[in-house]
Amino acid sequence: MAPSPIRFRGLSGARALYDGARVEECARLETIDVTLTARTGHIRLHGKGDEVRTVPLPSAAREQLAAWLTERGLQAGPLWPGQRGPLSASGITQVVPAIGDDAGLPGLRPHRIRHTYATRLRESGADPAQIQALLGHSSIETSARYFRVGAAEQAAVVDQTSSRKCLFLNAGVASSW
């Protein structure tokens, strides 16, 4: 059974959140803000303080947005129309928990999706300036919160580092300790 138009809309909206958009930025998206080709794509987000940033879309996001645009139609207007106008930030906030429940992620919230995106960027090697640009943070300090590591991550780094061959230990220096 094919997903309903409302489900398509919700999934593509959640996907935009996962690509770094704030709820308010998702609500402001118009079809003209989405550029998709076979190999590339991006969304233009209108953020806080009338700042505009362009965020590249990975292939999975391009596929979901393309499916939504096929369902929605390509006419100009809000990317997520509702029965009484564009889907608002409040509407998006209400749709996301239902998507989370369907995915086995109860209690999912829009900002959690955005936070997960930033964390995945960090885990993949993005530096703070890249995360700042992709999330639209005005301050590098705001992006720095994603670079705090937990105890498990610290332990993994220590294990990885200590498992490497240490020249002075192999040279017999450790025997005098």
From TrEMBL:
Q: Does the keyword Mitochondrion apply?
A: no
Q: Which UniProt keywords apply?
A: DNA recombination, DNA-binding
Q: Is DNA-binding included in the keywords of this UniProt record?
A: yes
InterPro entries, per the entry: DNA_brk_join_enz (IPR011010), Integrase-like_cat_sf (IPR013762), Integrase_catalytic (IPR002104), Tyrosine_recombinase_XerCD (IPR050090)
Superkingdom of origin: Bacteria
| Gene3D superfamilies in alphabetical order | Intergrase catalytic core (1.10.443.10)
Residue limits of the Tyr recombinase domain?
1-159
Which family does this protein fall into?
Belongs to the 'phage' integrase family.
- Return the protein name: Tyrosine-type recombinase/integrase
Organism for this UniProt entry: Streptosporangium jomthongense
